[in-house]
Amino acid sequence: MENTLHSATPEDYGALGDGVTDDTAAIQGAVDAVSPGGTVNFRGSATYNIAAAVILKSGVAIEGNGATVTKTASATGAVTFANEMYSKGYGGGGRDITIRNLRTVGDYAVTGAGRDQVMSFMHVRGLRIENCVFEQGMVNGHYLDLLGCDDVRITNSTFRGMNPLPGREIIEAIQTDSATYSGAGHGYFGLDFFDGLPTRNVRVTGCTFTTLEVGGIEYPLPNPLGMHSGALVGDDGWYQDIWFENNLVRGWTKDVAGNPWQGWLHMAGFRNVVIRGNTFAYAGPTQAVGRGSVIASRPLTEVIPLGQAAAASPVKEILTKPRAAMNWKISDNIFTGFNANYSDGSSSLIYMNAPGNDRISITGNVSESVKCGFCRVDNDQNLVISANTVEGSGTNHTIDVRSASAVIQGNSIRAASSFGIHLYGGQHHLVEGNRIQGGYTSIRAIGVGNGILANNYLRDYSGAGIDLGANSDPATTFDVTVSGNRIASSKAGVVASIKIGTKSTRTFRFGNRYWDGGPILDSGNGTRATSALDTN
């Protein structure tokens, strides 16, 4: 006879919800009893203590009503909720599973499995996490571990605190993982179901990630989202369709100097990513020198092949072509508070570094009173950096582009301290309509070809407004048009309004207006204009 029970409570199956009694079996009994489309209703005032993971099935919702879930002292694993497995592939772990209005709490005072609170899901299609609170977890694991899931929505939830073991400082609150045994790290999913598929189609909206104070100690915020490894050799191995929108990330992270994976959001081998409308606010102690970025993308160079997906210690395969970032949109975010406590000045808030980056768009962001660079993008083609407002910078360049081609347009940079815009290599760059105040050099180009620097307003630099092809540059700058720029500086000791060195060939210079900003110094080869075409 088909089960048609649409609602149940843990109390129906013997739960006490007193924070002491082990309620695992009672909660599992309620989950098993309801039919697909049904709901397990927790008692809002209850604290349910569990010793092992509750296994959720397809089509069932957990309505927390504000209840709390903790671990018993005898808990043997880090996982609080997992899912049944039916088959490999997306949806093979069930469909339409929902958890809402539930608080899960770990315990930093214990050394056993109860210190972590992990929800781990594999091959679930249609996972919904709504209005939940995760706190006092992330010692060795994550708050949400998504292995080969699809169509995931995480909304209006709060993630507080992490206390990572040494070497685990980069773990994420939400890990978009692949379906591998080494990624799961536990035995709730049978070995036959690991197929290496990556998590895809994830939306994180309206959430808060912040620090947590316990016993007078402030613990750092959890790294909100990301992944730093992958599986499957072919196109099926890409993480894709990730949205991180309208979230608040506030506090500080626990960094280890020199770890390349540091970054509040860090990813490798991701395409179709939207990071939009978020507020990233630094509030915390002085950080390590050269710390990581807020948004970071690295190349994915090796993966777990299908034949190793179920291995505990998989033998990885080196990709002949590393996976880079493709089709990213970073827009309308606010970065605030990233002052001297955050960085020694050598970092960039956004760092995209992978051979083959393609179609990266960084637009409409606001960076307030920072002491670091705004963005550095390496090895990209079809890059757009536009309409950003940046106040301040450190020893790093405000906008640092080391890419094949870029449009850098309509940005406003105030109080720069190094180079406002730094171009290194590549061709067909368009740098147009930017307003840059301060810095040693407003626009610096090294080894650039066929570029256009036009209609920029450059002022109050201490070295040069535009510097092309300096004598000591490692590569020649050629066929660059410099036109229509307005250049002025009242700083003492300025070198030049426009400086064209011997490593610049065939510069086309005309129609620039400069005053009180030093002379035009042109020792380039074959400059195709005369100073008469520029006005002082």
UniProtKB/TrEMBL annotation:
Domain Rhamnogalacturonase A/B/Epimerase-like pectate lyase: 12-91
Domain Right handed beta helix: 350-494
Species of the source: Leucobacter viscericola
Pfam families assigned to the protein according to its UniProt record, in alphabetical order: Beta_helix, Pect-lyase_RHGA_epim
Name of the featured protein: Pectate lyase superfamily protein
Domain of life: Bacteria
